[in-house]
Amino acid sequence: MALLLLAPYLVSSRIIAILNMMMISAVIAVGLQICTGYAGQINLGQAAFMGVGAYTASILASKTGLTFLLTIPLAGLSAALFGFLFGLTAARIKGFYLALTTIAAQFLFHFAVLNLPSTWLGGSNGITVPPAELFGQRFVSESSQFYLNFAVTAIMVAGAFGIVRSRFGRAFVAVRDDDVAAGIMGINVAATKANAFLIGAFYAGVGGALWAYLIRFVGVDQFTLFHSIFFVAMIIVGGMGSIVGALIGVFIIRIIQEIIATVGPNIADSVSFLGGDIVFAGMNVVLGGVIALFMILEPKGLMHRWNILKSSYRIWPFPY
Question: TM spans, by residue (predicted)?
Answer without folding.
Answer: 6-32, 44-62, 68-88, 95-114, 146-164, 194-214, 226-253, 274-297
